[in-house]
From TrEMBL:
Protein name (Swiss-Prot/TrEMBL): Phytanoyl-CoA dioxygenase (PhyH)
Protein's organism: Stieleria maiorica
Amino acid sequence: MVDLIQRYDGQTDAEFRSVLYSGTVLVMPASESTRRIREFCWDRICQVFGDDPRGATRRIDGETLFQKAGLLRREFYQSEVCRRGIADLLRQTGCDVDDHRCDPVRLRVITEGGHHNPAAAPVYYAHRDTWYSNPQCQITWWMPLHRVETTETFSFLPDYFDRAVGNDSGGFDYRQWTSKGTDLKIGWQDADAGRRELYPQLRESLPQHRRIAFEAEPGEVIVFSGQHLHQTVPIEQGETRLSVDFRTVCLSDHRQGAGPANVDNHSTGDALAGHVPVVSADLQQ
C-alpha cells in the first residue's frame, strides 16, 4: 500500500469515506472544533492529574491514577462538548450528521512501562476494531492531546488490511460484553477486566509485519477504517501518552454493505446497537 498515511485533501461525504474504506489513513489538520475538544479534555485532565499530566506517574500511584482516569473517561464519554465536536468534524467533511451514529469519545492513557502490567495486556494487543462486533464501514477518529512521536502512538500493519490473520474474535459477543454494564463499553473502568474478559487479538506470528507509526500535533486527527490491523506502541521510557478517540458509522453505507470486505472478523452481535445519534436530543432543542 503506497502512501498509507496522507494529509486530508478536502474530500467530502462519500468520497471521504471511500478513501478510508480503501485503506488510506487521513491526517486532518487541527481546527477550531478539534482545539475545542482538546482544550476541554486537557483542562479537565490537568484539574484531575495536576499541571503536568504527562508526568502523573511520578506523583500518583497506579491504582489512584486508574481511578482518576476512570472518572475522566466517563465524563468525556458523556460530554456534550465532545459530542458537538464530533458533529462539527462530520460537517467539516461534508457528511450528513443525521445519517451517522457515533461511539462517543474515549480517553486513552498509556503509561511508561504499562505493557509490563498483566492487567493492561489487552491495551497492547494487535487487533482490528471490527473484531469487537463493529460494522465494516466503521471509521475511527484518533486525536492526541499533546505532541506525539512515533515511539508513543500506535502502528498500522497495512499489509494485512485485506488479508486474513489468525485471531480469536469468534469468542467475542457484543451482547454478552454489554450485559455486564457500561464499564467495559466505556473502556478500562474495571481494573480486573484485562485478566477476565476476552479482548480479541492477533493469534499468529506474522511472517511479514511491516509497521507504520506516525507523529502528530495536538488537535490533529488521524482517521482510518476500523478494518486496519493496528497495535499500541509500548512506551519503554518516556512520559504518559494521553489521547482521545471516537468512532462513526454512516447508516446509509451500512445498509448498502459499503466498506472494506470482511476477511477475518468472526465476532457476533452488533455494536452498532450501542452507537448513539451524533447530535443528542438535548442539543437539537
